[in-house]
Amino acid sequence: MSSSTLDYSQDPKRPQYDLIIRKDKPFNAEPHIQDLVKHYITPEKYMFVRSHGPVPMHLNDSHSITIHGGINTKQFTVQQLKTQFKKAHVMMAMQCAGNRRDGLHRVKHTKGVIWGAAAVGNTTFAGCRLRDVLHAVGVVSFKNDLHVAFESVEQCEETNCYGSSIPLCKALDEFGDVLLAYEMNGKPLTRDHGYPLRVVVPGYIGARSVKYLKSIIVQDHESTSYFQQRDYKLLPANVDCEKEAEEYWCKVPSIGEFNVQSFVCYPPPTQNDHDMNKFILSQGYALSGGGRGIQRVDVSNDNGETWQVAKLYQPSLTTSAHIWGWCLWTIQLEYKGYPIVCRAVDSAGNVQQEYPVWNYRGVLNNSWRTVNL
């Protein structure tokens, strides 16, 4: 759908946000990188906003979602989900798959919103477990070839509405913590963040956490949505345009979990040398997908010749079997005139790769550059 035919006149006002606007219509914005590590739980004013079209305005607690669970089809209003199912909580890092796209865009033209390194945040969500809702419609076991597809009411620039899917095994996992969320950070979802109901999929790229949920379908294939089949996939490095990509869309899998990564948030890359003290407290974030925590973050102030181990802050909810939240790190360093760089290791021993693999749209293989470009 062309952006010229979409009506943005009813989008919410956003005076409370202290964000860098990366695109006005649809609204896409992220915080200043140094603000990102001021809080372990990211407040709404510093939480990035990813939109594909106008923010739906007609939704409330009477909004209903349809669930197709094979032979059973049921409808629940948001209010029924709140009252008929046990409330659960999850603390998780939400990250746009295009986070840090600006690094590639400096050396190679990319499609999509040109994000910095702050299209990520760590929040708490509350809602009912998707697992419980699927059980209520008779979906109690899974086969490895089944998927749960989500459809949104959000009209998009690229297609009629937003859609995505995850494997059914993730949705039914007792420890997968997938929610149909109606609260963020202890308050009702705002319109920018999915009011009145969204999916949240811990450990997966944000593209799978569908906002403004309309329907859930259990099926024997991935979502046929544009955003599952023709976006958020890793194509060979030689693919440079849409025409060359045609051969590969049906051959490569969609991105699900993200890999281990880290970034230096302070000092920010825009800070001048003459503003630096001899000793500085450097700060940043690290995270990994799949419920893996961060084991170590190494930091270098001499162009990678030597590395020092940073101090980590990574509390987790005691009710969760996995660590879905991010890790904040700090270290006192002598400033030597080089960019400060970092690398992370997660609890499975996966080491952050030094160079990223990109597709032509600037979506990362979640193996990240360790420097502030």
The shape, in one word, is: globular
Fraction of residues in helices?
under 10%
What is the chain-wise order of helices and strands?
EEEEHEHEHEEHEEEEHHEEEEEEE
| Biggest beta-sheet profile | 5 strands, mixed
Radius of gyration, taken over Cα atoms and rounded to an integer in Å: 20 Å
CATH architecture identity of the domain at 3-245? Alpha-Beta Complex
Mean pLDDT: 88
Question: Which regions are unreliable across 5 or more consecutive residues at pLDDT < 50?
Answer: 355-373
Strand content: 25-35%
How is the largest sheet built, in terms of strand order? 4-3-12-7-8
CATH superfamily of the domain at 3-245: Oxidoreductase, molybdopterin-binding domain
CATH topology of the domain at 3-245: Sulfite Oxidase, Chain A, domain 2
Number of distinct beta strands: 19
Look at the helices and sheets and give the structural class.
Answer: mainly beta
Quaternary state, please? Answer: single chain
The separation of the N and C termini measures 34 Å
- Number of helical stretches of at least 4 residues: 6
CATH C-level label of the domain at 3-245 = Alpha Beta
Cofactor: Mo-molybdopterin
Pfam families: Mo-co_dimer, Oxidored_molyb
Domain Moybdenum cofactor oxidoreductase dimerisation: 254-371
Domain Oxidoreductase molybdopterin-binding: 52-226
